Each structure stands twice: as C-alpha cells, then as structure tokens.
C-alpha cells in the first residue's frame, strides 16, 4: 500500500521484532506509546536525526508512527530521501491501540492514545 509515494503498512503487518519510530510530540508520547519504540518528535526530527541513525538496524526497515499517519508519512518520506528503508504505519497509534496492541505510559502502567 502507498500513502502518496510513501510505502505504507497496517499495524497488523508489524511484529515485535520491527523497529518503531514514534514522531508524536512529548505529551502524546507520555500519554501512551508502543513499548520499545524510539521517540523523536517530528518538530525536533532534523536536529535529532543522528539518534535514529544510531539506533536503527543497519539492514532493517524503520516503521514510522504518529497518531493517525499524516506526520509519520512526512517523516517516512524524508527518511527515504536520506536512503533509509522507511515505512509509514497507516492509522498510527490509534490503529495500534484499536488492534489491541499494548500501549504503555512508560511508568509500568497502561497508557492511552491522545
């Protein structure tokens, strides 16, 4: 599936082995996120790009999440232009939560998507 010219997958295609990048803002992240995801807000992304290149698997895909898929599509497009194998996650964290995947508050509790 494509979102414009950006490769896109649904949350049902993700596995626990996949590398997730969450580009939502701090308040959204703190309310609830996918455990193990790397968090770099879209508003800080270019300045913090090195954090992604340090953490991302050398030969693997980067699955980019936001709340519903718009911001993540923009970041995935940017990553593709930088030569990174990036994929937008359609429906974002709202679809993640709706599919029954765990949402963490980062403090050992159950989070929510805002």
Overview of this structure, please?
It is globular and about 35 Å long. The protein has 114 residues and is an alpha/beta fold. It contains four helices and six strands, in the order βββαβαβαβα. It has helices spanning 26-31, 49-55, 70-81, 92-98; strands at residues 2-3, 6-9, 19-22, 38-39, 62-65, 86-89.
Main attributes?
single chain; 114 residues; alpha/beta; six-stranded mixed beta sheet; 4 helices; 28% helix; globular
Widest sheet, order of strands: 1-2-6-5-3-4
Mean pLDDT: 94
The amount of beta strand, in percent, is 15-25%
Total beta strands: 6
Q: Briefly note the structural class of the backbone.
A: alpha/beta
Report the biggest beta sheet as strand number plus sense, adding barrel if it closes.
Answer: 6 strands, mixed
Low-confidence parts: none
Number of helices: 4
Percent of residues in helices: 25-40%
Q: Overall 3D geometry?
A: globular
Distance N to C terminus? 26 Å
Indicate the radius of gyration in whole angstroms. Answer: 13 Å
Instruction: Give, in order, the helices and strands.
Output: EEEHEHEHEH
Summarize the helices and strands and which ones pair or pack.
Layout: E1 2-3, E2 6-9, E3 19-22, H1 26-31, E4 38-39, H2 49-55, E5 62-65, H3 70-81, E6 86-89, H4 92-98
Q: Can I get a quick summary?
A:
This protein has 114 residues and is an alpha/beta fold.
């Amino acid at each position: 599936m494509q979102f414009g010219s950006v490769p896109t997958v649904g949350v049902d295609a993700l596995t626990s082995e996949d590398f997730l990048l969450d580009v939502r803002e701090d308040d959204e992240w703190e309310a609830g996120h996918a455990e193990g995801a790397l968090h770099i807000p879209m508003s800080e992304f270019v300045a913090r790009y090195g954090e992604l290149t340090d953490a991302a698997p050398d030969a693997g895909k980067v699955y980019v999440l936001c709340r519903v898929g718009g911001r993540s599509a923009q970041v995935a497009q940017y990553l593709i232009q930088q030569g990174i194998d990036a994929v937008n996650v359609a429906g974002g964290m709202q679809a993640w939560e709706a599919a029954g995947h765990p949402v963490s508050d980062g403090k050992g509790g159950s989070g929510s998507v805002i």
